[in-house]
Amino acid sequence: MSSATLAFLRGHLALWAAFAALAWSAPAVAQQKPDDKIATDDAAARAEKAAERAEKAAERLEKATRELEAARAALEKEREAKKEHAEEERKVEIGGYLKPGFGFRFRPQALPKDKYEYGFFGDATLEVTAKPFKMWEANVAVDFSTEALRAVTDVAIFDLQGDGSIDGVQFSTDAVPGAVLQEATVSFIPHETVTMALGVTRIPFTLAQQAGNSELMFATRAEPNEVFLSGSDFGFTVTGNFWKGRFVPAVGVFNGDSLGLSIAETEARGVVISARVDGNPLGGFDDGEGDYARGKFRIGFGAGAMVRPATLYDKTTGAEPHSVIDARFSGSLRVSVRGFYFVAEYFRRQQKDDFSSRPEAADGAYGQVGYFFRAGESFGLEPIARLGFVARDRTFETRLTGYVDGGINLLPVATAPQPDDVKVQLSYKGERRFTEREEAHGVLASVQLKF
Amino acid sequence: VKRLVLAALALGTAACAPELAPGEWGIFRYAGNVFGVTPLDLVPPISDREGNYYLLYGADKSPKNKPQLFIGYRGGVWDGGCAVTQGMGFGPHGFVGRAQNQAWYWSGEGLVGASAFSGGCEQILPSDPNSGAKLSFIAVVPFVRETPSKLSLVAWVQSPGDDRPFVVLVDLNASVFRSVVELAPNTLTNVTVLGVGADPDTSEGVVLFSYKLGEQLRVEARFYDADAAETGRLLLSGLDDLGAYDIVGYFERSTEGVWAGLDRKGQLLMFDRKGGQRRAITNFTPVGVHRFDGELYLVGTSGQTPVAAPIDPSGKLGAPKTWQVSVDAARALGSTIEVIDDRTLPSRRTAWSNPRTAMGAFPFLHAHSPHRYADQTTLWLVAGPTLKSGGVDRTAIACAPVGIAYP
After folding, report:
1. ipTM of the shown complex
2. Residue B21 contacts A where some CB pair is shorter than 8 Å
3. Which of B82, B147, B202 has the most A C-beta neighbours within 10 Å, making it the best mutation to test the interface with A?
4. What percentage of chain B has pLDDT greater than the value 70?
């Protein structure tokens, strides 16, 4: 029962109480005229009627009181229900994915020990989402990998002059298993169209970067994307989502430690300001890469920019401030229809400083395509292909690298709400270093299970 | 919004264009002091991919002073204590390559690696890993192949007991020889290297040498790929008067495969896989053959003016033209320059009066090609005050980026 109903009942109750008071007052008025018989009879009759009315009023009052009590009880029940529901909403979701696999790589020009490389690998992510209060959300994602970190595995000293004195120290590093915090954010969602997030997150600069690790079409993001931006960063983002994903702007401020700006023996100070806008005039896209919903035709255009004006300081002395500006731009095109998904992105990076007279620039782009279809009642297939390139060191000695990837995703539970919850992937990865005249060919087989 | 868009466009176009106009100098950094007065025995500086500077003091065939290598770290601070060399018959031939944060130079008969990562330098394979015999790098193809799996160069090495040198592929990561092949045929004797060259675009290298076959003196060019595999030979005549390392600087290769080099007698030697020619330069005084952005030039002086004559891809030498950018760069130094002394930090600023090119008569004039530091930008050395210490002249040198263009 609502509070409006309760107010209405209260009004009724007051009205009936007034009637009752009026009825009880009538006999007293009649007793004030005892000498007038007719008047007395009339008065007695009126008093009787008044008494009857009073009795009825009392009954109605009693009824109204009962109704009021019932209303109160209902309201209390409603409050209890709401409280219970609110308690139910304070829930925590745990999810993630596991992705073990096997890889083989052939590098024809490499040293004998590196010519053929193969082995099993594993990757797993644990995701926790909590919604303790209305409009507040927390997300944590930790990535466990067999090659998560580079650690110093050997230290050697060397004597350059042959005079017995140590001239330097050489460190060897190697990849070791470990856990990496991919995401740890607290989000405030004041309205369904606006999300504010603070913490560790991927900078929303490119489309590939916005897709979660388990939502990728290939086992990894396109190499060009990884060259221009990789990993997560500390920062604050405000993301909009208007007209059901037709217009998605995002702005953010980040520490910028993931950009790799620093020069040896220097420390960079300066935040990254990022912005990205996606326009999807025919409707928003699903999260991640691919069109597993086999939806209607959609097309999307996007552009991103990141600027980091920073100051470099010498690590030892804390002096020698130098200004550096690192600017990165991206543009994207997406098309999706009935299981077909195409995305192309272009990147550019430029870095200038006030001391070297040598600006640095790099370009890169990739295009990838996939087509998801059901090959049986619950079995899905998705052929995938990708091409890309990166041109580094454009301003002094360009190094051009090309990438060719292709393969197929097998989706054995394609009838699930998320058809890619189980994904078996067989893919080829090719890399051609045009400038260095070296190439590598790899084959990957992996299973991804989301939970 | 309009201002932001314009600022973004300006930033985008600015990064595409060179930062320095031709003849314009960047920031001068005080590298150190070297023996002598200008023109000093210095090789044009180079940089690695990370932007660290490498300066090499000590000229070819001038064993009076030990070579000295300076490393200028990009973020500041210099190392100047490296003086590794081998064989006192001659000094540094020049830099032979660079990589991400390393550079290598060839001095005397020694190959030396310098690292901005570890700081310092190290002689590469001074002795045979098997026999322990002392090794002489009598020829080094001046190109370091840097790939994800390899860091290598091609060289000729010889130990005192060897009749002929060995062609080797030097693994610079592991300091081992990946390939060792004795120079063929086994009837040749008295091998003398005259000059070397390399083309980083094609990974091709060349060694010009003389030898005796019986009593006959021959001069031959041998061509190599980046794996030290021989890809061609060419017998050349009319070069009997050339001695060891008589090609100044290195041979440079045109896009059509013509190699050009200048000998100590001021004659231009050009050859391809089929034949060659040697010609005297009479209309100006040549200094060296340069290759910049794929084009070849013979540079020198005509009177008191720097000149450059283009060499077209087929090997045809054009008429010399005044090298105005060199003149402009010399003028731009003016009477005083501000130099940052960041040999140690915190840095200090100092003013040098009478700044002048530390090498050659004019900026960019050298037997070696200027290094491509950035788009249309090279590194050059400027001399500052000269002080007498113990009766010996010591001159301060500073390194700076400078815009370069050829006529």
Report:
1. 0.84
2. no
3. B147
4. 94
